[in-house]
Amino acid sequence: MSAANEDGALAATAKSSGFGGPLAGIKVLDFSRVVAGPLCGLYFADLGAEVIKVEAPNGDENRKWEPTLAGTSAGFFYLNRGKRGMTLNLKSEAGQEVLRELVASADVLIQSYLPADSEALGLTHELLMAMNPQLIHVSISAYGLTGPMRDHPGYDLLAQAFTGIMSMTGEADGPPNRAGASVVDLSTGMLAFGHAVSALYARAMGRARGEHVQASLLQSGLELMSTHVANLAIGGAEPRRQGSGLWNLVPYQAFKAADGWVLIGVTNDPAWQRFCAVSGLTDLAENPTFATAKGRIENRAAIVDRIHELVGKMTVAEVVTLLEPARIPVSPINTLTQLLQHEQVEAVGTLVPIAGLEGSTAKVVGRPVNFATPYEQPVRAAPALGEHREQILAEIGYSPAQVEALTQSGAF
Fold it and tell me: How crowded is residue 236: how many other Cβ atoms within 10 Å of its Cβ?
């Protein structure tokens, strides 16, 4: 069977068998807010789990962040697609009653309240385990659940400042800068998801029952800085700002071409010789001072100036065409618009239409990892505030009359 026919057969088998993804049948309660926790929940949804977004009566604050469409933020549309939604007032006795029923029917619960707020709202690990000893409880905090800062609030940029990411981001003679992407929030969601799935696996194998997966922005920031921590601990090298480059590799940075910017990287000594050969910089290749990484670091300015002079006379496309055949790491420095229009992005199939924006050609990042066995990603739009409350409650045994009574008692 040809590869194409085999892929087609796999797709047909997946569709006919009703394969909904590797986590089909898993039920997730997503009580989290903003970015990190909702991203963790989104990964569950994209892999086939049933995810219920449970919001406080006033909703996730991310709903109102700009830019918005019809009163809902683009970020909320993205991070909460594929989920159903309801509200729940955990400060009410009736809300706590519903919480117990929801938790009893769930496999995973994600929450991102401060530890003190978790205690006040009945979302501590001890209380949740009493409701469901098999539950995988994922708590996401700013600074962890112990220590003097356990109840300090935190966001991505605060975490970038605290963990040293800002201190090493920016030009050498400039102020600390924010990393352009929300790297701490996003990595926290990824780490929380991966460890939650490992806890589910341990439970499925009979090695454990419930588990408390404890992720924090602080620990994610430390992980992002982990190679620099090793460099400091072992080699005494405090990371410092180097603009677009790395302090320990030369050249490895952005260079301005005639029509834009291009990234050029020379990561070892043989690559340096190849780079000089194809670039016509034979005098640099023959200079023993530049032959090693240490020598190039010590003579950074002289090398970088020569490359700036060379690249400034070429277009970005010319630089890429020159260096790629020599296996020199090189890339245009794309804008986001340029990236999304690139044929390679289309080829990997990561962009998907966003449900709820019918008639729009807008696409967002879908599942960022591919499987050999295909399955359709969920196309459910991010829920309106409280949209699926009656449906969700009916599934765990509440009658319409009971839902109305709970509504009157302030449960939602």
Answer: 7
Note whether 316 and 380 are same-domain residues.
Answer: no
Q: Would you state the pLDDT for residue 277? A: 97
Q: 41 and 180: one domain?
A: yes
* Other Cβ atoms closer than 10 A to 56: 19
**pLDDT tens per residue across span 127-138:** 999 999 999 999
Quick check: is 29 in a domain? Answer: yes
Q: What is the pLDDT of residue 16?
A: 36
How is residue 17 written in tokens? Answer: 């068998």
189 and 305, same domain (yes or no): no
- One domain for residues 100 and 216: yes
| Vertex 389 angle, CA 387 and 393, to 5° | 155
d(CA 208, CA 203): 5
DSSP helix/strand/coil, 333: coil
pTM for this prediction: 0.89
CA–CA–CA angle 224, 367, 393 (5° rounding): 105
CATH code of the domain containing 33? 3.40.50.10540
Q: Which residues of the chain have pLDDT under 70?
A: 1-19, 357-359, 378
In the prediction, which pLDDT does 125 show? 96
Residues 164 and 284 in one domain: no
- Write out the catalytic residue numbers: 185
Compute how many other C-beta atoms are within 10 angstroms of the C-beta atom of residue 343.
Answer: 6
Domain total in the chain:
2
